[in-house]
Amino acid sequence: MRIAVTSESNSGLDSPISHHFGRCPYYTLVDVEDNEIKDVHAISNPFANGHQPGMVPQFIRQHEANVMLSGGMGYRAIGFFQQLDIQVATGARGTVGETVRLFLDGRLQGAAPCSDSVAHQQDGHQGGNHQHGRH
After folding, report:
1. What angle do helix axes 55-62 and 75-83 make, rounded to 10 degrees?
2. Cβ pair 67, 13 in contact under 8 A
3. Model pTM greater than 0.85?
4. Phi, psi of 92 (to 5 degrees)
5. 93-104 pLDDT, tens per residue?
6. Which domains does the chain have, with CATH numbers?
């Protein structure tokens, strides 16, 4: 299984989680076999400065991820991932390593749209300290 995680840096499992799914600077890809982490590498987000709906889920699919973990995500992005048969969980926080472990332990599940997802679409929201997903 390959898990993609929104991240603020390319520091692997130590990278802080990014709460802005589509505009995060990096996605950390974590390969897992038998509930053990086998490989970790970060890729730059080519859409961090802007994108059309559906572009990021397609990008994640091209990198063969089966799961997408993020601090927050809008309802449209969640729908695109569901159409691509990629499992989504929101409410991630801490580091990539902590988040992946929570997911593997079954303690990070489900995708609740970011409460500000409408604002993201209407005013090009690019930052802030609001809360996302389930915590």
Report:
1. 40
2. no
3. no
4. -65, 145
5. 999 999 999 999
6. 2-123 (3.30.420.130)
